[in-house]
Automatic annotation (TrEMBL):
<dbReference type="InterPro" id="IPR018062">
    <property type="entry name" value="HTH_AraC-typ_CS"/>
</dbReference>
<keyword id="KW-0805">Transcription regulation</keyword>
<dbReference type="InterPro" id="IPR009057">
    <property type="entry name" value="Homeodomain-like_sf"/>
</dbReference>
<dbReference type="InterPro" id="IPR050959">
    <property type="entry name" value="MarA-like"/>
</dbReference>
<keyword id="KW-0238">DNA-binding</keyword>
<keyword id="KW-0804">Transcription</keyword>
<dbReference type="InterPro" id="IPR018060">
    <property type="entry name" value="HTH_AraC"/>
</dbReference>
<feature type="domain" description="HTH araC/xylS-type">
    <location>
        <begin position="9"/>
        <end position="107"/>
    </location>
</feature>
<protein>
    <submittedName>
        <fullName>HTH-type transcriptional activator RhaS</fullName>
    </submittedName>
</protein>
<dbReference type="InterPro" id="IPR020449">
    <property type="entry name" value="Tscrpt_reg_AraC-type_HTH"/>
</dbReference>
<dbReference type="Pfam" id="PF12833">
    <property type="entry name" value="HTH_18"/>
</dbReference>
Length: 300
């Protein structure tokens, strides 16, 4: 049923692997075994943009990260990402982000980078039938303790939803928010994964949050539609499943890990839940880190 979702995801992978190369649509289509017209048509149908526009936005966004993180000349970065001149790159950059590359390199600020497209994902498609889920062999969730220092969290707290899918379906632009947070990844709290989701609690109600933890010393700009809150230091119980196959096991891993997290009694480990910190964190990086739910605790 999801043959073309998977095929378009392969197109995305191909673009990302060849982002600095001047390769043609014909070369990609030959590698995938479909005509250029059919590839373009299906890509547009599933992503809402043309393949050409996607490549352009990803190139300009990848170039922006190099401006932020390296001391390369603007001209060298422009040439690397396929622009005919520094002037052409400047026009494109200004069109995308309303400032010049030179200005951004001197003083990076939050900008809405174009993120990698995901069109073949269990977050968007129910690709597992119940009988297949029963055949998944999962490791039991590990439980460990982690100290997270006091920090600031920049993001969105939405009281009307309690999960990832509903959060993005509630008027929040995944591309714009994730892209803007990606431009702030150099400020991420050391030891954390960068963009982070989770849950928060207010007047006995549970909501969902999404953003990025940064150091307590961060005093830079806060993107529009986001806010910044200080989070006290605390130990956290980490309910963790190691790396897994995202497309195959994601739903089952998340469900079993969260079941342990929400039903665990920390007294056996000498802790109680820290009610003073009114948010839990969620880490999700299947192939690299795995999946984890973090709940704040304090010693009894």
């Amino acid at each position: 049923m999801y043959e073309w979702n998977e095929m378009v995801q392969l197109m995305v992978d191909w673009v990302e692997s060849n982002i600095t190369e001047n390769k043609s649509l014909l070369q990609m289509s030959e590698q995938l075994g479909y005509s250029p017209y059919y590839c373009s048509r299906q890509f547009n149908q599933l992503t809402g943009m043309t393949l050409r526009d996607y490549i352009w936005t990803r190139r300009i966004s990848r170039a922006a990260l190099e401006l932020r993180d390296t001391d390369q000349r603007v001209l060298d970065i422009a040439v690397k990402y396929g622009f005919s001149s520094q002037e052409a790159f400047t026009r494109a950059f200004n069109k995308a982000f309303q400032l010049t590359p030179a200005t951004y390199q001197k003083a990076p600020r939050p900008i809405p980078l174009a993120i990698r497209q995901e069109v073949f994902s269990p977050y968007h498609y129910l690709i597992k039938e119940r009988d297949k889920m029963s055949k998944v062999h999962l490791q039991p969730a590990e439980i460990k303790v982690e100290f997270i220092p006091a920090h600031k969290f920049i993001g969105i707290w939405d009281m009307s939803v309690t999960n990832y899918g509903d959060f993005w379906g509630n008027g929040h632009s995944c591309d714009e928010i994730s892209g803007t947070l990606e431009s702030m990844s150099n400020h991420a709290l050391p030891g954390q994964l960068g963009q982070t989701a989770g849950w928060f609690y207010q007047n006995g109600q549970k909501g969902y949050l999404y953003g990025i933890p940064v150091s307590l010393e961060y005093d830079g700009p806060i993107p529009e539609c986001m806010e910044c809150r200080e989070i006290p230091e605390s130990e956290y119980l980490v309910f963790f499943h190691p790396p897994f196959d995202y497309l195959k096991d994601n739903g089952a891993v998340m469900r079993t890990t969260e079941e342990v997290a929400w039903n665990f009694d920390p007294q056996g480990m000498g802790y109680k839940w820290d009610e003073g910190i009114k948010q839990d964190y969620q880490r999700h990086f299947p192939e690299g880190y795995g999946y984890a739910v973090l709940r704040p605790v304090k010693k009894i």
